[in-house]
Each structure stands twice: as C-alpha cells, then as structure tokens.
What does this fold into?
Amino acid sequence: MAIAIEDWKSALTTRLERVMPAAEAVLQLPLIEEIRELKARTGAVVVAHNYQVPQITAGVADFTGDSLAMARYAAATSAETIVVCGVRFMAETTSLLCPTRRVLLPAIDAGCSLADSITAAEVRALRNAYPGVPIVAYVNTTAAVKAEVDICCTSANAVQIVDSLRAPKVIMLPDRFLASFVAERVKCEIIPWAGACEVHERFTAADIAPYRNSNVVVLAHPECPEDVQAAAHFVGSTAAMADYLARTQPERALLLTECSMADNITLEHPGIRFERPCNLCPHMKRITLKRVRDSLRDGTTQIHIDAHIAERARRPLDRMLAL
It folds into this structure.
C-alpha cells in the first residue's frame, strides 16, 4: 500500500510539473491525499469543470468536463455523494439529474455572472411579451430559470436544439453572444437576452491581432463577442475545443476562454504550447482543495432545490437529453 501511494504521488507530481513548479506541486500532495482518503471512506465521487485548477482536475477529480457532462457522469455512477467542483448552476444541474443523491458544492458562494443575468420573473415576462414563442435556456442558468422554459441547450448542441423546435421565432437566454452564434446557423429568428459571461465578454479582436500571420491556432468559446468569434480559427464549446486540439495537435494555440482550460489540456497534450491572454473566472477559483476537503469531511455545503422548482426544471433538461 505504501509503495502504491508513493507511486501515485510521484506520477501526479511529474504530471503537475508541466503547469507549475515542482515545489508547488509537492506542497499540494498532503491535502490531495487527505481528499482521496475521504472519498474512499465516504464512497463519494468528485466531478470538476474544465475551468478548475490542475491540482483539482488531476489530483482529486474522478471526471473532468463541461457542466452537462459532469452531471451525466454523476448520474451514471452509484455514488451517494457527489462533490461538484464548479459553480452553483452546475451543482444544481447535477442535483436535478441525481435527485436522490447528496450533491455538495465546496464553495456554496460560487455563483456565475451569466446565470445571475436573468431571473425566473424575467423569463415569465418574456413569455407574456412573446406568447407562443418557445424559450431555450442555456444550461448556464439557475434551476428557477430552467423551471420557466421549454427546453435547455448547451453551447455544443444549441443549434440542434433550436432547429428541433421548428418554430419561426425562438427566444434564447441568457447569453447574447451564444444567441448570435446560433442565429447565424439557423433559419428562424432568434430573440436574445442581453446577458453575458464576465470571463468571455472581456476578450476582443485586439487580443488576437498579435497572432495573425503566425502558426498560432486561435480557438474561441461562443460566449465570446462576435468580432472575436469571427477572427478565430475555431469556435466551440469547451469539450469541442479540447477535442479539436486533441485531433489536430497544433504546435501553438490561443484559447480564448478561462485560463485553467489551457493548463488542463497541457496535462494531456504537453506538446501544445499555449499563448496568453486568458481570463480567470473568480467564481470558479472559489473552489480550492481545502474547500473540497472541508465539504467532504463536514457535508455542510449540500445543494437544496425546492421540490416544486426541481420537478419543473427537470423537464427542459430531460427534453434536451431525449434529442
């Protein structure tokens, strides 16, 4: 057992050295080991978003991916306790898809500027203003907002979801840039909400300008402004960007999304050199190893959703998953 523990410590340290100094990686090990022991003792699984730091994704997470993939992985396990290393709407989505499990969010105050940009009351007002027009909600919304809409979407399947409605007009919320991305790819009229992600909306085409006429491949998230999307070589969800890089293996790349995404891809593909800029999400960074440990140990950060809201919010998620 002692040899096995030393083996994983050595392997993890070597891996983390790709994105941080060796001494810093070694300092993380005692807390990582404590979390692993707590997971084994409680039978918990840890799911992490692509924007989490490598010591979480590589050190303690059982699965790393986008918000919906995290929830689907959790639902497919038999674990009674699921620790969500992400922000609140992600933990809510996991709870909706795993209604009988205990879902813990290590930083209960980890919000999201995009999810906070619209309320359930505002969705009801949209419904009244546009009677009969279907409403599509990005998964980056609260459970209360999901409870008011017709169907959910992700950045990866948004075009498919809108097409499936076969409606002349569709309301998309809350991200206006994702709505613009979809509007260019569907035949119906898209009525957008004015929300945006504080991480992605800060990118500009000027950030890309220094890399024009170079061998740098530029990838942008559809939550980025239109001029950024237009200047990028590839636009797609976090999962799509990761798949694209794994498939093409460019020598140099610029990821216009949250900073930790590049670090996590570097763990898997050290031959790709990532350029900056990138932007940090202050909400994602509320999740730390210490908070993961405390959440598992104390169980005091459980997500609770009103039963009536949960029942209604589950329907648009299920409708999306059924397509």
